[in-house]
Specification:
Blueprint lengths: L3 H31 L3 H6 L3 H14 L1 H33 L1 H14 L8 H8 L3 H25 L3 H9 L4 H38 L6 H10 L3 H29 L1 H5 L1
């Protein structure tokens, strides 16, 4: 008789197998299109040529250097922008004067296209690592601010009155009231911020074409008409972004286990 864990593993494998059907079908269609004629082969580079380009970049070390630089900038931008967003969002939710002061400006700036600010930022802070990381931090700042603000705004004010009646310390307020209310929304905001940060990271590297980064590698590949290298870059960014998202989901499930036990 099969154990529950064995059945669970088989169900997981079936789910992954079903999820792999569409990507495999798309890869097969891509390879088929690459074999039609020369024009199709240029647009739809054969998979073996993409694999060869990946090996070429890996052996030279260029792929790891550029992906590592993009990963570092994206991680720093996510952390810095996320923390600033949590502080501002929580502050606006808890203190009405702060909300009246910052919310009109925040609502106006969040609708400004970030990539449209790049020419202005290049005049202010140049085109180095700081400029690229700053744009990524802005991309993470807005969803994290909104998540923190929405989470705390939904708390019933009677809970605050109850906490005051028990004369809870600031640490107890944070541990027993604010964090449990904020964490689900914060993780939801983080899962939104991760793909936005990666899109902004690659775009900023394309605009600020200085230093290591996937965007710089993509621009050089475009200049050399290396479609295979472009696709390797796209695949590399996709893998890193998906891996970061999966990591965040895993941390969220572990941290929020208390909701299933409540």
């Amino acid at each position: 008789m099969q154990t529950h864990s064995a059945l669970s593993r088989r169900a997981t494998l079936r789910r992954y197998a079903r999820g792999a059907l569409l990507p495999l079908a798309l890869l097969a269609a891509w390879q088929l299109a690459a074999t039609r004629d020369a024009s199709h082969q240029y647009a739809f580079v054969p998979l073996q040529q993409i694999a060869s380009a990946c090996l070429e970049l890996a052996r030279s070390g260029e792929l790891f250097i550029d992906l590592g630089a993009s990963l570092r900038r994206t991680s720093i931008g996510l952390v810095c922008g996320g923390l600033m967003g949590i502080v501002l969002g929580a502050g606006m939710a808890l203190y009405a004067p702060l909300q009246r002061l910052f919310q009109p400006l925040f609502q106006g700036l969040r609708h400004v296209p970030l990539l449209g600010l790049i020419p202005l930022l290049s005049l202010w802070v140049g085109s180095g690592d700081f400029a690229k990381t700053f744009v990524i931090a802005l991309a993470a700042f807005f969803p994290m601010t909104t998540s923190a603000f929405d989470a705390l705004s939904r708390i019933d004010r009677r809970f605050f009155e109850l906490a005051q009646s028990y004369e809870l310390t600031r640490g107890a307020w944070l541990r027993d009231l604010l964090l449990p209310a904020m964490l689900p929304d914060l993780f939801a905001g983080l899962l939104q911020a991760v793909p936005i940060a990666w899109i902004t990271a690659t775009s900023s590297e394309l605009f600020f074409n200085a230093g290591a980064g996937v965007g710089n590698l993509m621009q050089n590949a475009q200049a050399g008409a290396r479609v295979d290298v472009l696709l390797v870059c796209v695949a590399g960014v996709t893998v890193l972004a998906v891996a970061m998202g999966v990591l965040c989901e895993g941390v969220a499930k572990r941290v929020l286990r208390w909701r299933d036990q409540a």
